[in-house]
From TrEMBL, chains A, B:
Transmembrane segments: none annotated. It comes from Asticcacaulis biprosthecium C19. This is Bacterial regulatory protein, arsR family protein. NCBIfam families: HTH_metalloreg (NF033788). It holds the Pfam family HTH_20. It comes from the Bacteria.
DNA sequence: ACAATACTCAAGTTTTAACTTGACTGTTTT
DNA sequence: AAAACAGTCAAGTTAAAACTTGAGTATTGT
């Protein structure tokens, strides 16, 4: 399974997408990450493992708490995949658009 | 379910990702699209419906054959989502990168 | 020292999504 | 007109993910 496929598979689940969106704003512990969801901490841990394996999230355990934050590497992979998946025609349009608009 | 979520859900499946990759190169009929997979035409049709609902593929039926091609709109949605999901710091780096590299 | 916190693990259950079956519609070919 | 082709539909089955349970470990607070 390629990196891009791992990333897309990971983001295929609604809970994991929500976790990623919440981590966009701020890093947090596993418990804090789990708080909004009606599921066990174990389940959240499993989602987290998938996100980590995909390179979307990185975690570090200090003492008894594991801090979770976004890992930009995963998003870079996704970006590259998306760009490659466009038709030749569309890529030409994009290049034109970038020139007209300038970098965002 | 938002557009970005539909797109990511759709691309969460390996068969659908492969279909998208094959449609990158050329448009084709449902049968041609189905050929490499060890599954029924019905199953392929179901995958196709999901890709179409996500805005990743567009299809047109002429006579008895349905032609399938990539729909760049879905990829644009994915691109926007990806960009938004990066940390503030990373987004600054991206902007700088774009300026240095110029449009791809 | 004891209790509470913050996870972690293996194994089993449940739910979702993928896939099949069998019958059917409309279109093109012979 | 009949047969083959290209796809579609509803309903059921199967396989894959998500999720839970009931434990256990290491760390921090009282």
């Amino acid at each position: 399974m390629s990196d891009a496929h791992k990333v897309l598979q990971a983001l295929g689940d609604a809970t994991r997408r929500d976790m990623v969106e919440r981590l966009t704003d701020t890093a947090m512990s596993v418990s804090a990450l789990a708080a909004p969801y009606d599921m066990t901490l174990t389940a959240v841990g499993q989602h987290l493992a998938i996100l980590e394996a995909a390179g979307l999230v990185k975690t570090e355990k200090i003492g008894r708490v594991r801090s979770c934050s976004l890992n930009p590497a995963g998003f870079a992979v996704l970006d590259i995949w998306t760009k490659a998946r466009r038709s030749t025609w569309e890529r030409r349009l994009d290049a034109l658009g970038d020139i007209l608009d300038g970098p965002s």
